[in-house]
Automatic annotation (TrEMBL), chain A:
Biological processes, Gene Ontology terms: spore germination
Pfam families assigned to the protein according to its UniProt record, in alphabetical order: Spore_GerAC, Spore_GerAC_N
Entry keyword set: Germination, Lipoprotein, Membrane, Palmitate, Signal
NCBIfam families: spore_ger_x_C (TIGR02887)
Record has Lipoprotein as a keyword: yes
Spore germination protein N-terminal domain location: 24-194
Major localization listed first in the record, in broad terms: membrane
Source organism superkingdom: Bacteria
Protein name: Ger(X)C family spore germination protein
Subcellular location: Membrane
Organism: Aquibacillus halophilus
InterPro entries registered for this protein in UniProt: GerAC_N, Spore_GerAC-like, Spore_GerAC-like_C, Spore_GerAC_C_sf
Automatic annotation (TrEMBL), chain B:
Predominant location category: membrane
Membrane-related topology note: Multi-pass membrane protein
KW Membrane (keyword) present: yes
Protein's recorded name: Spore germination protein
GO (cellular component) term, any one: plasma membrane
GO biological process, one term: spore germination
Cell compartments where the protein resides: Cell membrane; Membrane
Length: 404, 527
C-alpha cells in the first residue's frame, strides 16, 4: 500500500514537471491582437498593434466605441517594442490570433525583411496562418488604423479580401510565413508580397465616421505585388503584371479576361480552371524555360455582334485569349527582368530539370536570369457559353436599322 | 431517578441479547403454556403478534395455540385452513374414532388437516421466530416439543407497476416490486426453462433478508455462480435493506467510481442478462435486482435497443457514448481551451466568448464550478422534493437562476450553455449509477483542466482508461469486448447488429452452449 502511494506521488510530481503549457491566462486578461504593423523608426522599429475590443464585436449591448484600438511604440528590436507596449496597453498582447502583419514600404526598401521576420518565426505564441503584406507608399501604422465597414475587425477585412481577390480575380497573392521564408532562402526564387494602400481620404480612416457612411471616405485597396530582391523591396508589379505572375506560378483559381471583338465591343470570359507547367532546358549553355498555360473558360459577357454558336468564331476567340495571356505573361516577365528578380522561381525549375547546369548558373543567377530564353504556350478552351446563346444586342441593332 | 431507570432497562436488554445467543438452538418445550410465555417474552409482548389459544378434539382435551404476525399473514387463509380445520375437522375425525392417541392426532393434523401447501415442522425456537416473523402461522400442540409452521404469507404490497427508472417507449412496462416471490415470478414468466435455477439464502443477522441467486444452468459458467455464492457467504452484517448493501459488500474493487455490478428494475433486462449466462441476485424488499458480471458497455445499453430496429438501436447507442464523453469533458474542455489554449479556438468564436467573459468577475474554473455545483444542488433538490414541486423547482430554478446569473454578469452565457449541455448529456445514460460516476469524475477533470489544460485532461483520460482496464467484474475484464478485443462480439457492443446476426452468446461471460440462434437472414420464402 505504501509503495503504491509513493508510485502515485511520483506520477503526480512527474506530470507537473513535464507539462509544457504551464501558466493559465483568463480570456479577460488578454488583449487579442489582430494585426501588427512594423515600420522603420530612428530608434529601430516602430510597432503598431491592432487590438480587438470583443465587447464591441459580439457583446450584448453595443456602444459607439471603436471595435479595435491601436497602440504604437518604438524599440531597438521588435521584441523590445512589443514588451514596451505593456506600458500603454491595459493587458498583455496575445498574438496567436493575428490575421495579418503589415510592413511599411520604407522599412522594406531600406532595411529589408529578414531582421523583422526572425521574431515572427521564432516566437512560440504566433501561429503561422496569418498573411503578410506591405503598406504601399505609406506607413504600416496608418494602414492599420483604418476602420472598415461590414467586417468589423479591419484585419479580418484585409485578410478575407486578400483571399477572395486571389481566388476570384488573381492579381493578389496570399503569402503566409512559411512560404515567405522558403522563397527568401531559396537560391532560385525571390519573394513577393501583396501591397496595400488607402484610397480616398486616409485621415478619416481612423474615425468612426469612416464606417458610418455608405461610401467610406477611406478604403483599403489591395492590388500590385511587391517584388523583392534578396530581402529588400525593389519595385511593384501592376495589376496586369500581378496577374501574369499568378499565371506563371500556377496560382490562378478563377479570373476574368476580355478580348476585343472583330467589330467594336468586347467579349469577357471567366477562366475557371488554369494549370501552368514550367519546364526547364539547357540549350547550348543558355537556360531555357517553357511555360505551358492550359486554361478553361466560359463566356461571361458578349457586348458585340457575334454568333457564338459558330465554332469557328469560338476558336478565334480562343486564339485571341491565348495571345492575350501570352502578352500578360511576357509583360510580367519583362518587369521582373527589369528588377532583375526571379520571383517566378525559374531557378528552382532549372535546378529540377538541369541539376548539373544549375550548379554553374547558381553563382551568377541574376545575370543568367537576364539571358534566360522564355517560350510561352497558352492553350485556352472555351467550355460553356453561358445561359443564352446569341446575344440580344444583335436584335437591337437590327431594330435600329429598321427604324432608320 | 429516571436516569437510573433507563440504565436498568438497558441492562435488561443486554441480558436478553445474551440469552438469545445462549439459546441458539433451544428446543421447544412440551408444555404449551411455557412455549407461549417464552414466545411472548421474547417478542416483548409486541402487539402485532397474535396468539389464539384453542382447545381441539371432541372433548376439548388438547390445548393448542395458533400464533401469527398480524399484517404479514393472509387472514382468510388462517381462518379457513388453519383455525377452521383444527377446530372442526379434528373434532369430526375424532368422533369417527379415527384417532386414538395423541401421537395419532399429531400425525393426523400434519397429514390430513392443515390444507395448505407449505407446511414445515419446527422444533427449535429460532426456527419458530423466523417463520413467525416471515408471515407464517405457527401451530403448537400441548405435549409435543414440536409444532407446525403453516405457509400463510400474504402482506400488502405495491403490486407490479411501471418502472420508475429505465423507462422505454417500446417494450414491457412491468417492473420488479419489493416482494421477492413476485420478482422471481416475473423472471419465470419470461424464461420457461427448467434450467432456470433459483437458490435462496438468508443474509443479515437481524433482518434475515431472503437473497436469491438466479441463473440458467448450462448457460452460466459455474465458476461465476460459485464465486457469487462464496462472496455472499462471506457477508457478515446485521442488516440488508437494499441490494445496494449486497453490491457494496461483494463487488470486485472497493475503490472505484465505476459500478461493477449492473442493477435494474426491469424484468426484461434481467432476463436478457440471464440468457447471456449471467447471474442475477434478487434481494427481498427492493425492486432493484443485481446482475453480474457487468461490463462497462452494459451501462450504455437499454433493453429498448433490442426492441427497435437495429440501425436505430445502433445509432442511439453511439449517441450515448458520445453523450458520455460530453457529460464527462465539456466543462473541462471549456476551461482548458479558454484559459490555456486560446490559440485553438477559431478567432470569431474566441471573439464572442471573450465578449461574454468581459466583466465576469471569476476565472473560468471558478465560474464553471459555481454553475456545476448550483446545478448539482438543483438536481438533488429536484429528486428529493415531493413530485409535484420537484419538476417545477428544477425547471424554474435552472431557467431563472441561469438567466439571472448571466444578466447579472456573474457567469457568462457560454458557461450556461456548457453546463446545460453537460447536464442533458448526463441524463442520456440509461443507467443511473453510471451517470453518477460521470457526475463525480467531471469535477476531477475540471480541476485537471484548470491546472494543466488539455494536457491535464488527456492525463486524466489515460488514468481513467488504465483504471478501467484494470477493473474486473466477477473475473471478467470490465472493458471487454474492447479490451481484450473480441472481434465477434462487436456486434453487440458499440452498435447493435440485427438479431439474426448475433448467433453466439458473449464468449467471456458464458463458455457453454455458445450458439444462441440459427435464424437465417429474413427474406421472402418462394412458394
Amino acid at each position: 500500500m505504501n509503495q503504491k502511494v509513493v508510485h502515485l506521488l511520483c506520477i503526480v510530481v512527474l506530470c507537473i514537471s513535464l507539462t509544457g503549457c504551464w501558466s493559465s491566462r483568463e480570456l479577460s486578461e488578454l488583449a487579442i491582437a489582430t494585426a501588427l504593423g512594423i515600420d522603420k523608426h530612428e530608434d529601430g522599429y516602430k510597432l503598431t498593434v491592432q487590438i480587438m475590443n470583443p465587447g464591441e464585436i459580439a457583446g450584448r449591448q453595443l456602444t459607439t466605441r471603436a471595435v479595435v484600438t491601436t497602440y504604437s511604440t518604438t524599440g531597438k528590436t521588435i521584441f523590445e517594442a512589443l514588451r514596451r507596449l505593456t506600458t500603454i496597453t491595459p493587458r498583455k498582447i496575445y498574438l496567436a490570433h493575428l490575421r495579418i502583419i503589415i510592413f511599411g514600404q520604407e522599412l522594406m526598401e531600406e532595411e529589408g525583411l529578414a531582421n523583422s521576420l526572425d521574431f515572427i518565426s521564432r516566437d512560440h505564441e504566433l501561429r503561422t496562418d496569418f498573411s503578410l503584406a506591405i503598406a504601399k507608399d505609406m506607413s504600416a501604422e496608418d494602414l492599420i488604423k483604418v476602420l472598415t465597414p461590414i467586417e468589423k475587425v479591419p484585419a479580418d477585412k484585409i485578410f478575407s479580401s486578400l483571399k477572395t481577390s486571389q481566388d476570384n480575380w488573381a492579381p493578389t497573392k496570399v503569402v503566409m510565413l512559411d512560404e515567405l521564408i522558403s522563397s527568401l532562402t531559396s537560391p532560385g526564387k525571390q519573394a513577393v508580397l501583396t501591397g496595400l494602400y488607402i484610397s480616398g481620404k486616409p485621415e478619416t480612416g481612423n474615425h468612426i465616421e469612416n464606417v458610418q457612411q455608405v461610401d467610406s471616405p477611406a478604403k483599403v485597396h489591395l492590388d500590385h505585388i511587391g517584388v523583392f530582391k534578396g530581402d529588400k523591396l525593389v519595385g511593384w508589379l501592376n495589376e496586369s503584371e500581378s496577374k501574369g505572375f499568378n499565371y506563371i506560378t500556377d496560382n490562378v483559381l478563377n479570373t476574368v479576361g476580355w478580348v476585343e471583338c472583330d467589330q467594336t465591343g468586347t467579349i469577357s470570359v471567366e477562366v475557371f480552371k488554369s494549370n501552368t507547367k514550367l519546364t526547364g532546358l539547357a540549350d547550348n549553355g543558355t537556360p531555357k524555360i517553357t511555360i505551358d498555360v492550359k486554361s478553361e473558360a466560359s463566356i461571361g459577357e458578349v457586348a458585340c455582334q457575334i454568333d457564338i454558336n459558330d465554332e469557328k468564331k469560338l476558336t478565334e476567340i480562343e486564339q485571341k485569349l491565348e495571345k492575350k495571356i501570352e502578352e500578360i505573361v511576357n509583360g510580367s516577365i519583362a518587369k521582373a527582368k527589369e528588377f532583375n528578380s526571379d520571383i517566378f522561381g525559374f531557378g528552382d525549375v532549372l535546378r529540377r530539370f538541369e541539376p548539373k547546369k544549375w550548379e554553374t548558373w547558381k553563382e551568377n543567377w541574376s545575370e543568367e536570369f537576364q539571358n534566360i530564353e522564355i517560350t510561352v504556350n497558352a492553350d485556352m478552351k472555351i467550355r460553356r457559353t453561358g445561359t443564352t446563346t446569341e446575344s440580344f444586342i444583335g436584335k437591337i441593332e437590327q431594330k435600329k436599322e429598321k427604324d432608320e | 431517578m429516571s436516569r437510573f431507570k433507563i440504565f436498568n432497562t438497558l441492562k435488561d436488554n443486554k441480558e436478553t441479547v445474551d440469552k438469545i445467543s445462549d439459546d441458539n438452538n433451544k428446543s421447544l418445550h412440551k408444555d404449551i403454556s411455557k412455549n407461549i410465555s417464552e414466545v411472548k417474552q421474547m417478542l416483548g409482548n409486541s402487539f402485532d403478534i397474535v396468539t389464539r389459544e384453542i382447545k381441539i378434539g371432541e372433548t376439548n382435551s388438547i390445548e393448542a395455540v395458533v400464533i401469527y404476525t398480524d399484517g404479514l399473514v393472509d387472514k382468510d387463509l388462517v381462518h379457513n385452513y388453519v383455525l377452521e380445520t383444527l377446530m372442526i375437522d379434528v373434532r369430526k375425525a375424532e368422533s369417527e374414532k379415527k384417532i386414538n392417541s395423541d401421537q395419532e392426532l399429531y400425525n393426523f393434523i400434519k397429514n390430513s388437516t392443515l390444507t395448505t401447501v407449505e407446511l414445515k415442522e419446527i422444533d427449535i425456537f429460532p426456527d419458530l421466530y423466523h417463520h413467525l416473523l416471515s408471515g407464517d402461522t405457527i401451530v403448537l400442540l400441548n405435549g409435543f416439543p414440536k409444532g407446525f409452521a403453516v405457509g400463510s404469507r400474504g402482506w400488502e404490497d405495491r403490486g407490479v407497476q411501471e418502472p420508475s427508472s429505465q423507462q422505454v417507449v417500446r417494450g414491457p412496462k412491468d417492473a420488479f416490486t419489493e416482494t421477492l416471490r413476485t420478482n422471481t415470478a416475473l423472471i419465470r414468466r419470461r424464461i420457461k426453462d427448467p434450467n432456470l435455477w433459483i437458490e435462496t439464502q438468508k443474509i443479515g443477522k437481524k433482518t434475515q433478508t431472503d437473497v436469491a441467486i438466479a441463473y440458467i444452468n448450462g448457460l452460466v459458467t459455474e465458476d461465476i455462480v460459485l464465486e457469487v455464492k462464496q462472496r455472499l457467504n462471506k457477508i457478515d452484517i446485521d442488516s440488508i435493506l437494499e441490494s445496494g448493501y449486497i453490491e457494496e459488500l461483494i463487488q470486485d474493487e472497493a475503490y472505484t467510481p465505476f459500478p461493477t455490478m449492473y442493477n435494474s428494475e426491469r424484468p426484461d433486462s434481467i432476463s436478457a442478462g440471464l440468457l447471456e449466462g449471467r447471474v442475477a441476485i434478487l434481494v427481498d424488499g427492493t425492486p432493484f435486482v443485481l446482475l453480474v458480471p457487468a461490463l462497462f458497455i452494459d451501462f450504455f445499453q437499454s433493453s429498448e435497443d433490442y426492441y427497435q430496429r437495429s440501425d436505430i438501436g445502433s445509432l442511439i447507442r453511439l449517441l450515448r457514448f458520445f453523450a458520455f464523453f460530453l457529460a464527462l469533458l465539456t466543462p473541462s474542455a471549456y476551461i482548458a481551451l479558454t484559459t490555456f489554449h486560446q490559440e485553438m479556438i477559431p478567432t470569431t468564436l474566441l471573439t464572442s466568448i471573450a465578449a461574454q467573459r468581459e466583466g465576469v468577475p471569476f476565472p473560468a474554473f471558478i465560474e464553471a464550478l459555481i454553475m456545476e455545483i448550483t446545478f448539482e444542488i438543483l438536481r438533488e433538490a429536484g429528486v428529493r422534493l415531493p413530485r409535484a414541486v420537484g419538476s417545477a423547482i428544477s425547471i424554474v430554478g435552472a431557467l431563472v437562476l441561469g438567466q439571472a446569473a448571466v444578466e447579472a454578469g456573474i457567469v457568462s452565457a457560454t458557461m450556461v450553455i456548457v453546463v446545460s449541455l453537460t447536464a442533458i448529456s448526463s441524463f442520456v445514460s440509461p443507467t443511473y449509477n453510471m451517470a453518477i460516476s460521470v457526475r463525480m469524475l467531471r469535477f476531477g477533470f475540471m480541476i485537471l483542466a484548470a491546472t494543466f489544460g488539455l494536457y491535464g485532461i488527456i492525463l486524466g483520460l489515460i488514468l481513467m482508461v488504465l483504471h478501467l482496464t484494470g477493473l474486473r467484474s466477477f473475473g471478467i475484464p470490465y472493458l471487454s469486448p474492447m479490451a481484450p478485443l473480441a472481434v465477434g462480439e462487436q456486434k453487440d457492443a458499440l452498435i447493435r447488429a440485427p438479431l439474426w446476426m448475433q448467433t453466439r452468446r458473449p464468449k467471456l461471460i458464458s463458455q457453454k452452449d455458445k450458439i444462441r440462434e440459427k435464424t437465417e437472414k429474413p427474406k421472402p420464402t418462394r412458394q
